[in-house]
Design goal:
The complex is a heterodimer of chains A (about 400) and B (about 600). In chain A, the strands form 2 sheets. Chain A has an 8-stranded mixed β-sheet with strand order 6-5-4-3-2-1-16-15. Helix content of chain A is about 35%, strand content about 20%. In chain A, helix 13 links the parallel strand 13 and strand 14. By secondary structure, chain A is of the alpha/beta class. The longest helix of chain A has 24 residues. The two termini of chain A are about 10 Å apart. Chain B is α+β, with helices and mostly antiparallel strands and about 600 residues long. In chain B, about 40% of the residues lie in helices and about 15% in strands. Chain B is built from 18 helices and 15 strands. Chain B starts with 6 loop residues before the first helix and ends in a 5-residue tail after the last helix. Classes of the chains: A alpha/beta (about 400), B alpha+beta (about 600). At the A-B interface, helix 6, helix 7, strand 9, helix 8 and helix 9 of A face strand 4, strand 5, strand 6, strand 8 and helix 16 of B. Strand 9 of chain A pairs antiparallel with strand 5 of chain B, so a sheet runs across the interface.
């Protein structure tokens, strides 16, 4: 292999609000390919997710015309990370391994319990928000957590080529760093999701459990409405005890915020199951933290080895579309390598409603750290010579290893 | 004067008996659950509507809302029966119960503080026993009210409730006591609703649980029953030391909501389920942040202190009863022993509760921490009882120490270093002479001497008094504080808010009446408010002066760069762990810390 060919390529597809990345590592005969997520809940100007899927499959074709991917990674089950896998086109793609977080392991009872609560909560929440005619973005947020059966089926049993399924990290911390045959020369570090009890407790938000009860109780009430006491005890407003209109509004408004709070808690819970992977190829370290949240990050930052590795990051996929709590301040300020070290970063994002995503402060902090930062919604602004793009479909960069 | 006009003949009864559920309806007719408590007698309008409490039975769960028939506790038919009989199906009993338990809590505070407590501006605390549908209850400052929810019990796992039956949070003694305590804490320290460090919300929750649990010890039947059943070991998990049983079961938890002994903190229950040891308690203070769980650490520490004192107090009784061995024989203990032990338990509980509440006199006005509270506890008890014969303070210090709770800036956990430092000499005397008659400054301080006047709107007198107070504040206190700002731990030149001002009376060691004046002074720095999520940095001092004007204590939280830094770190931690912030519009971000309240905290949102 010529030195010029010793470059790892990372391509970010413009899926709108979602993630789809292809990592390409040159090999002896053909390139090794890793697909990190493929999903969207709001299309951007790169076209629909099905169009993106078609281009990905076209792009991963080897010289013999067969599409091949060595490792498909689904960081977590949110639609914006997996919806693309619902396409039937994947049946033709030869895949060697599929990696998912341990929470997807069908043989793990704890994982089953977590998935069960999360999907029941998503269903209930989505139905309630729809019934209440809530804000469209809020409904989408709940819909994002709905199980995507077709996509999950592809991941668990689809693809051509009898792919091996792996659920990461292994429970044994010692086995979290490993190599696989299909990715020669690559060391993989699976840093999350954590098995820590407090982190797991947040995957099953207590708030969600009490919300399920509340909805059940309200449904029972609608089915069989009855006053809290037998008989009619209502009276006209008693003199001296009336509330003002403003005060009674406060009382009537109790619980109005429940859905949005629970939706955010559920979103955080599912993000909390995100795989956090680092790939080391030669001197290059690629960090894909999925949408990991504070709990998992905190465990990683408190680990005895991971921070040393994080300090070697060459490429960062910015977590959760650049939101505020998927990239800890401590990581950016104290751990991420500082200039003159070379650092590339990609953010797959698009502005939605009033959501503060991507977070301005985070974007500012990162661009202070590196000029090699690109956003999927600002592909034309990508630095020439560092990033190459194909119209608005994708943007890619090459990192010598 | 004719004899029939004399006070002796005209006097109204001092106490009013009222029936309640000692715990909640789920306990049914278990021993002592249907009980009668006594509260101070006052003239009541339908509601009940008294001098400090008004029960407003407004149900906001239907659109437009609805009111339920208010109870008239002064109706002779009801008076004759010592109140309505406990039942779930009559809203008037619910109103009676929230009134009775709330008054009991207020009385406990008044007894401990030695003065009457009225709400600001002559308002009353509102209790809304059926405010909304939901398994929640909370104090709302805007309404100066406690809103109780009601809900249908879990269908699959309702405990001893009927599946799907209505469960009323307003019929749980513990929930009422807990929520009313929140209101009283807000009355005593208005800035404690700003969660400016990781202890503030937890302090609110823990303290409210402490009041609720120690109130259990005032119900004699239950106390006897469980002392007999546990053979005097009060640490056994019985309803005596557990909180909100029905609520816990009805929401499918399969246990009481919280407990003073069987802690579910830091994953302890999960660990125990796997047969593992709990995390060492000394680590909990460092690692547990959810306000209720963190509050439980405070409860456990105080309860440990209680248990140690209680054991010391009954050890002689046990020896007498057992021929000197102290080992009880098999079977039920002797009823006489049970009743003597119950007496000690109840006295100890009252004395610990008094200590816990009195500590408020020695708390800084802002940004409280567990360490501050420990120092306030120790100081309050020292002032009241310097010799500590039964080791009450020592036990409490040990219980806090074993949980890793240390105050900042204290060199050792010896009693003398935990006491707040005496104010340095040389601070100009407090202008006592300008205040006039000190006894008039404690509104209602002596009101118990004249119970239940015919017309009892004592709040009216209070309002008049508070009018005088504001003059006193403007003409005497503020100038004094401004002139001596630095010595009082305040920042000279910055505006000073005089927040509270009252006199305290107690009997000193020598049997003489000791009068002290307690003033709360606060300052705020708004320069960082926006970046701190809507909370200013607050500084302030609680200043305690003797009757001669000597400054005895200056309990200060000065404005400082170090405190700013701590608060910033706390806000950052809240931000990092709050999933809702991801989607919070930029426009609301500036108020995010302000928006924390009991409604959201009580729903179990982990922050």
């Amino acid at each position: 292999m010529s030195p010029a060919a010793r470059k790892v390529t990372i391509r970010m597809y413009n899926v709108g609000f979602g993630d789809a990345f292809v990592i390409r590592i040159p090999g002896k005969t053909s390139d090794r390919k890793i697909l990190m997520d493929c999903g969207s809940i709001k299309e951007g100007d790169g076209g629909s997710i099905d169009d993106v899927v078609d281009s990905i499959i076209e792009d991963v074709k080897d010289k013999d015309g067969t599409p091949r991917i060595d490792v498909v990674v689904a960081t977590h089950r949110h639609r914006d990370h997996v919806s693309g896998f619902a396409s039937s086109a994947w049946g033709d793609v030869e895949v060697k391994e599929v990696w998912m977080p341990w929470t997807e392991n069908p043989a793990d009872p704890e994982a089953g319990r977590i998935r069960d609560l999360q999907s029941r909560l998503a269903l209930t929440l989505h139905a309630e928000l729809t019934r209440l005619g809530a804000d469209e973005n809020l409904i989408d947020l709940a819909a994002n957590a709905l199980s995507n059966e077709a996509a999950m089926q592809t991941l668990h049993s689809g693809f051509a080529g009898n792919a091996t399924r792996k659920f990461l990290p292994p429970r044994d911390r010692q086995k979290s760093t490993f190599a696989v045959d299909c990715l020669p020369g690559v060391t993989v570090h699976a840093m999350g999701p954590s098995f820590d009890e407090d982190v797991i407790a947040n995957m099953e938000p207590p708030k969600g459990k009490s919300y399920l009860q509340l909805v059940e109780s309200a449904a029972a009430e609608r089915e069989d409405p009855r006053p809290p006491f037998p008989g009619d005890w209502t009276v006209d407003p008693p003199s001296g005890l009336q509330l003002t209109a403003e005060e009674s509004q406060i009382v009537e408004g109790v619980g109005d915020e429940d859905e949005s709070v629970v939706a955010a808690a559920l979103d955080g819970a599912v993000n909390g199951t995100s795989l956090v992977l680092m790939f080391q190829v030669g001197k290059v370290s690629l960090l894909f933290p999925g949408d990991a949240q504070w709990g998992t990050w905190n465990m990683i930052l408190e680990d005895s080895e991971w921070p040393t590795l994080l300090a070697k990051t060459t490429f960062l996929k910015v977590g959760h579309h650049g939101s505020h709590n998927a990239t800890p301040k401590q990581f950016v300020e104290d751990i991420l390598p500082k200039p003159p070290a070379d650092l590339w970063a990609m953010v797959s994002t698009i502005k939605r409603g009033t959501w503060p995503i991507p977070k301005k402060e985070l974007m500012a902090a990162l661009s202070k750290r590196t000029k090699k930062l690109v956003r999927s919604d600002e592909i034309p602004q990508a630095q020439q010579g560092v990033f190459a793009s194909k119209a608005k479909l994708y943007v890619e960069t090459e990192i010598p290893f | 004067m004719k004899r029939i006009e004399s006070r002796y003949v005209q006097a109204q009864p001092a106490r009013r008996p009222l029936k309640i559920f000692a715990s909640d309806p789920m306990q049914g007719r278990a021993v002592g659950n249907l009980t009668t408590i006594e509260v101070g007698n006052e003239k009541l309008m339908p509601g009940p509507f008294g001098s400090r409490i008004e029960v407003v039975d407004y149900d906001g769960s239907v659109s437009g809302g609805r009111y339920y028939q208010p109870v008239n506790l002064d109706d002779p038919a009801i008076l004759m029966m010592a109140g309505l009989d406990p039942t779930e199906s009559d809203p008037r009993f619910h109103q009676q119960m929230v009134y009775a338990v709330a008054m009991k809590v207020i009385e406990n505070f008044e007894r401990a503080l030695g003065r009457s407590i009225y709400f600001r501006g002559g308002r009353r605390l509102r209790l809304l026993p059926h405010a909304f549908r939901g398994a929640n209850a909370f104090y709302d400052r805007r309404l100066l009210g406690v809103l109780f929810g009601y809900f249908r019990a879990d269908k699959k796992n309702p405990g001893r409730n009927l599946p799907g039956q209505n469960v009323f949070t307003c019929l749980s003694h513990d929930i009422i006591a807990h929520e009313v305590t929140h209101a009283l804490v807000d009355r005593l320290r208005r800035h404690f609703l700003e969660f400016s460090n990781r202890d503030v919300a937890a302090f609110h929750e823990g303290f409210a649980d402490i009041v609720a649990i120690f109130q259990h010890f005032t119900f004699p039947d239950i106390l006897h029953e469980y002392i007999r059943a546990t053979r005097t070991d009060l640490r056994s998990p019985t309803p005596l030391v557990q909180l909100a049983q029905q609520f816990g079961y009805a929401t499918g938890k399969g246990r009481a909501l919280r407990s003073a002994v069987d802690l579910n903190v830091g994953g302890a229950l999960r660990a125990r389920a796997r047969g593992e040891e709990d995390a060492p308690p000394s680590r909990l203070y460092e690692t547990v942040f959810e306000p209720h769980e963190r509050g439980s650490i405070l409860v456990a520490a105080v309860f440990d202190g209680f248990f140690a004192v209680y054991q010391r107090r009954i050890s002689d009784l046990l020896r007498i009863a057992t021929g000197g061995t102290g080992m009880l024989p098999q079977g039920d203990p002797h009823p006489d022993l049970v009743s003597r032990v119950a007496g000690e338990a109840s006295r100890t509980a009252q004395s610990i509760l008094t200590m816990c509440i009195r500590a408020f006199e020695y708390l800084p006005p802002v940004d409280v921490t567990y360490g501050d509270y420990l120092r306030a506890l120790v100081t309050a008890d020292y002032e009241l009882n310097p010799s500590d014969d039964v080791g009450q303070r020592g036990s409490m210090i040990e219980a806090f120490r074993s949980r890793g709770i240390y105050p900042d800036g204290v060199w050792s956990l010896a009693e003398e270093s935990l006491l707040w430092e005496n104010a340095p000499s040389g601070i100009p005397r407090f202008p006592v002479a300008l205040l006039g008659d000190l006894s008039s400054l404690a509104p209602g301080a002596f009101s118990r001497a004249s119970p239940a006047q015919e017309e009892s709107p004592t709040w009216k007198q209070y309002r008049e008094t508070s009018g005088e107070l504001s003059e006193v504040v403007e003409s005497v206190l503020r100038p004094y504080a401004e002139d001596n700002a630095a010595a009082l731990g305040l920042e000279p030149g910055r505006p000073i808010d005089v927040q509270g001002f009252h006199s305290v009376f107690r009997i000193g060691q020598d049997g003489q009446l000791v009068i002290e004046i307690v003033t709360q002074l606060a300052q705020q720095d708004d320069s960082q408010t926006k970046s701190l999520g809507g909370l200013p940095i607050r500084g302030g001092s609680t200043v305690i002066a003797g009757a001669d004007g000597t400054i005895r204590y200056v309990i200060a939280k000065p404005l400082s760069a170090a405190r700013l830094e701590k608060q910033r770190e706390w806000v950052e931690l809240c931000d990092a762990t709050d999933p809702a912030l991801t989607y919070l519009p930029e426009s609301k971000r500036g108020q995010r810390m302000q928006a924390l309240n009991f409604e959201t905290i009580h729903q179990g949102i982990v922050r």
